[in-house]
Write a structure and sequence with these properties.
Elements (H helix, E strand, L loop, with lengths): L9 H10 L6 E5 L12 E2 L9 E2 L3 E4 L6 E9 L14 E4 L11 E4 L4 E3 L2 E4 L9 E2 L10 E3 L7 H9 L4 E5 L13 E2 L10 E2 L1 H12 L4
Parallel strand pairs: 5-6, 13-14
Antiparallel strand pairs: 1-12, 2-11, 3-10, 4-6, 4-7, 5-9, 8-9
Length: about 220
Amino acid sequence: MPVVAELLPVEDALARVLDRVRVLPAETVALEQASGRVLAGDAVAALDLPRFPSSAMDGYALRSSDTPGTLPVVGRIAAGAPAGRPLAAGEAMAISTGGVVPDGADAVVPIERVREDGDAIVVPEAVASGSHVRPRGGDVRAGELVLSAGAALTPSRLAALASAGLSEVRCARRPRAAIVATGSELRPLGEPLGDGEIYDSNGLMLAALLAGAGAD
């Protein structure tokens, strides 16, 4: 009667696998193809973020020293469409979230905090300098670290890298794995089954697990 070899405990099997793990070579990957990959080196910002003083609110760009008070609205700033001129003393410009805060302005008052009066706004309370303005480089400056080597590239981290001006990153090469399902009773999916035969479900499961872990 054949003797069944003693089974290897899971912990020992895992230790043997990890003992043979080696860092894979790095390769340059387009950011669009980097989801789920692992950074092989530090990623640093290619530009200041924001690139310009940016409004954090829909509201009005103004000089804090002009508040409280009534200010004529002399322009409207949309995201991607700067004013084209500085803001003079005693003026206000309507501005959307993400719009460029014009030179001369040092604050943004939210639209809910003012009262419109024809072509002017009434600001009833003093607005502090810097209110609702994201300064240039306030999130990260060019050359500063965005993500460290070894970071897994999740969707939110990919967005952070894209915002910082990166279009490609150095990543560890994906591990390649082969699956060999053994057993004379196994048949590929979709084929007719004979007596005593079953479909190869474990191979499918292992392939899905490997793909989910980032392997090819």
